[in-house]
Design brief:
It is built from nine helices and no strands. The chain is mainly α.
C-alpha cells in the first residue's frame, strides 16, 4: 500500500488526508445520528401525560432537556406553553433550528471531500502525463517500459481520488437523508405537543408522538 501511495507522487498526500477525514466523519456520524437516541418515539405523548397530571416540575423539565435533542425542543415548548400557542411555536422553531444545525455538523466537510478528491486525482494524472511527455522529449518514445511506468504512475492518483470520492458521496447523501428523517420525526412530535397543550385536537389513543 505504501508503495502505491509513494508511486502516485506528492498529490497522493492530500488524497490520503481526505480519506482519513472522510472516514472519521462517517464513523462519528454513524455514532451520533441514531434516530431513537435523538428523537425517542412517543416522547411528546409522555410529556403530555405528565402535564395533564401536573407532575412536570423544573427538575423534570431539565432532565427532559438533557435527555435528547427532541427532549430539548419539547422542554423549550413546555417552558413557553403558558405564553400562548404562537410564542410556544416560535420558541420551539428557534431551538429546533439549532438542533438541526448540530445534526448537520461535518456533512458539508464530507461533501467537500467527495467533490475535491476526484479533481485532486485528475490533477495528479495531468502532472504525471506532463512528466511522461517530458521523458519522451528527453529519451525518445522507444523505451516502452519507461512510458508504461509513467502512465501507470499518472493514473494512480485518479484511481485513488475516485476510491475516496465514491464512498464519501454515498455516505454524504445517506446522512443528509437520515437528518431529514430525524427532523421530520422531531417536527411531528413538536406539533403534536403544541396541539395537545392548546387543545386544538384530542389525543388519539396509541398515536402519541407517532412518526
Amino acid at each position: 500500500m505504501w508503495e502505491i501511495v509513494k508511486s502516485g507522487g506528492w498529490l497522493m498526500l492530500p488524497i490520503v488526508l481526505c480519506s482519513l477525514v472522510a472516514m472519521a466523519i462517517i464513523v462519528e456520524r454513524f455514532w451520533t445520528l441514531q434516530g431513537r437516541k435523538l428523537a425517542p418515539p412517543g416522547l411528546s405523548g409522555q410529556v403530555r401525560k405528565m402535564l395533564a397530571g401536573g407532575r412536570l416540575e423544573q427538575k423534570q423539565v431539565q432532565a427532559l432537556a438533557d435527555g435528547s435533542p427532541l427532549g430539548r425542543i419539547l422542554a423549550t415548548g413546555v417552558v413557553n406553553a403558558r405564553h400562548g400557542r404562537d410564542i410556544m411555536k416560535e420558541s420551539i422553531q428557534e431551538v429546533a433550528s439549532q438542533v438541526v444545525h448540530e445534526l448537520e455538523r461535518f456533512l458539508n466537510t464530507l461533501g467537500t471531500v467527495a467533490a475535491i478528491t476526484p479533481m485532486l486525482g485528475l490533477l495528479g494524472t495531468v502532472v504525471g502525463m506532463i512528466d511522461v511527455f517530458t521523458a519522451i522529449m528527453a529519451h525518445g518514445a522507444g523505451n516502452t517500459a519507461l512510458l508504461a511506468g509513467g502512465i501507470s504512475k499518472a493514473l494512480i492518483t485518479t484511481a485513488a481520488g475516485l476510491t475516496v470520492a465514491i464512498p464519501a458521496m454515498f455516505f454524504h447523501r445517506f446522512f443528509v437523508r437520515r437528518v431529514d428523517e430525524i427532523t421530520v420525526a422531531m417536527e411531528q412530535q413538536a406539533v403534536h405537543l403544541i396541539d395537545m397543550v392548546h387543545g386544538d385536537r384530542a389525543e388519539t389513543p396509541g398515536k402519541a408522538g407517532a412518526k
